[in-house]
Backbone:
């Protein structure tokens, strides 16, 4: 619940910043052709700020839960809970796995208990970028936990169903 409130506050702040930016662009007697376009540096700085805030939230969560996580260069957090056997998965490999997908506050979004195991082809199936990256760390029989920040999951909009805007999600996967 606290996480959802935090996410909503961040979304409101982002919208307020964008609104302030747009209003400042329209102040005075500018004609549409004179309206200042957003500075790429401003947007890049906002993006870096959001990524850093997500990182801090994930670090705090992992610490509170006593999780030993590793952060990838892209920002995916992972823990390989059980090693599998054989080679790790690569692009175009078929992977079948059971999963649980939760929000940081523990809200269950999706689960193979309800929808059945997922059967995907890495790089061809439509899945979250962070999940695809995480699966490439695993081999058959492995189990892992992935904490996926919004920029590697469903971004600013969420999935339009159970995952809200700018949500950090946790996947627990078991490769079959």
Residues:
């Amino acid at each position: 619940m606290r996480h959802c409130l935090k996410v909503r506050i961040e979304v409101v702040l982002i919208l307020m910043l964008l609104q302030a930016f747009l209003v400042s662009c329209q102040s005075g007697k500018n004609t549409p052709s004179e309206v200042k376009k957003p500075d790429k540096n401003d947007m890049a700085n906002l993006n870096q700020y959001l990524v850093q805030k997500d990182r801090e939230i994930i670090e705090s969560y992992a610490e509170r839960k006593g999780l030993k996580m590793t952060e990838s260069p892209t920002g995916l957090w992972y823990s390989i809970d059980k090693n599998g056997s054989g080679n790790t998965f690569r692009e175009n490999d078929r992977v079948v796995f059971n999963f649980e997908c939760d929000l940081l506050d523990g809200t269950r979004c999706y689960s193979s208990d309800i929808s059945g195991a997922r059967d995907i082809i890495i790089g061809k199936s439509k899945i979250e970028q962070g999940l695809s990256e995480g699966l490439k760390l695993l081999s058959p029989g492995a189990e892992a936990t992935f904490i996926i920040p919004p920029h590697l999951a469903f971004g600013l909009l969420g999935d339009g169903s159970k995952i809200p805007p700018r949500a950090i999600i946790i996947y627990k996967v078991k490769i079959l």
